[in-house]
Predict the 3D structure of the following.
Amino acid sequence: MEHRTARKLAQVERSATMALADRARSLQQSGRQIINLAGGDPHFGTPEHVLDAAQNALAEGFTHYTSSRGLPELRKAVADRLSRRSGVIRDPEHEVVITPSAKHAVFASLMAVLDPGDEVLIPTPSWVSYGQMVRLAGAQPVPVPLFAADNFTLSRELLEAKLTPRIKAIVLNSPTNPTGRVLNASELRDIAEFSAAHDLVIISDEIYEDIVFEVNSHRSPAEYSECADRTLTVSGFSKSYAMTGWRLGYVSGPRELMDAVLKVQEHSVGEAGSFIQRGGVAALLGDHSPVQHMVEQYDRHRKWAHGALSQVPGIECALPEGAFYLFPDISALGFSDSHACAQWLIDEAGVVVTPGSAFGPGGEGHIRLSLAPSTATVEAGVNRLCDVLSMPR
Ligand code: PMP
Ligand code: GLU
């Protein structure tokens, strides 16, 4: 009976963000007054025109299988958006696949490129699922720790230092969850040259592409001539359009890689939900003022929360450039580690945050606060944090 589950799963941890979301829900259900700043889920409703499109699709009986690649009009909208924004040309027929969530798009991309024994570079702090997904594919994550003192800047030297002959791919995420960094031109140039020199596949998770606080600051590695043929670009609807529960995302890339992604999709989930995809078409082609409105609110949250936390003696906090998280350094506050700090904050302040250690070796010494809840929740949560962390312990 010892080996009834796959050995590779022995190395895989539960999603720290999802486990914490469950914890916050159960604390709330048990009657505790909890302020949840853990999850990356926008408090906004999904825009009306998106709801209407999905409701109309349901009313029309649009409730059957679609092409496994996704609705042609949605693939075209994705390809048009890519070419408009970054000049990257992908054929909607063969080079775009609509997926049930960006999470599945990352997973299918990794399954499409990795063999057992391969290794994957992951600059950290990084989103909790990349390393676990690499392990699910039978490969090994190789973290590339970045340093808070350098504002988590990525460089060719840091990448070269972790290179082994087994490295097959690199996972990038900009704007970055949890640090809020947006990769700049010099970092992207380094990545492009490094990936070309070592013939690596780039999996570029750009799910926060719309949430940047300086116009046009988000750039994609696929824009670089060395990278166009080696990059799988992932994005989705959860963050930009407040559609986390819809489970809708997409991946685009060169045909050879996309044919492999399609095989994974066809033999796992099949495709994304039909009426859900109609909502996606409305999101991409419809009025974008709701996105603008949300980004403006995240901008106010980040400035206010950054200002408030920076007043707490011992806390260092960079102002995020994108995404909707704050990632303060709490290492001078005397906790044994970030997990202990997060636990103490639940007990003492009733505020749930994510310990930085969940984001890999580069994340220890930090906590992550989500700025996606409502203004009232963010203000109440951050005020409580500031109060308890300013008190002598
Ligand atoms: N990538 C990053 C960096 C994220 O923060 C998230 C949020 N869950 C995802 C991918 C997945 O998004 P979803 O599955 O909701 O499309
Ligand atoms: N991306 C969000 C987060 O980091 C949602 C949870 C998840 O999918 O990991 O909190």
